[in-house]
From TrEMBL:
Name under which the protein is recorded: Uncharacterized protein
Pfam families with a match to the protein in the record: DUF7533
Stored InterPro entries: DUF7533
KW Membrane (keyword) present: yes
Keywords: Membrane, Transmembrane, Transmembrane helix
Transmembrane region(s): 29-51
Organism in which the protein naturally occurs: Halorussus limi
Top-level taxon of the source organism: Archaea
Length: 81
């Protein structure tokens, strides 16, 4: 996991707002003995969070390019030694 900024934390929180109810529904189905349906809901909830974390979207590209550019142009005194 990379360091999260404020926007990254807010994006994760928004994803969890949608993923947690789906996951809890899956747990409820699992507790009632409906393994296939419960497992499906839990898997969907996990995928929602994993895809948000690791999938690169078009809005992520400019930020990634800017980070690489700044890292090459601006060197800290520790980098020069």
């Amino acid at each position: 996991m990379s360091k999260r900024g404020i926007l990254g934390t807010l994006q994760l929180a928004a994803t969890l707002v949608f993923a947690l109810p789906v996951g809890l529904l899956g747990v409820q189905f699992l507790a009632n003995g409906e393994v296939l349906l419960g497992g499906g809901f839990v898997a969907v909830a996990v995928l929602m969070v994993v895809l948000e974390e690791y999938l690169t979207t078009p809005t992520d590209v400019p930020g990634a390019v800017a980070e690489k550019t700044v890292g090459k142009v601006a060197k800290t005194p520790d980098d020069e030694e």
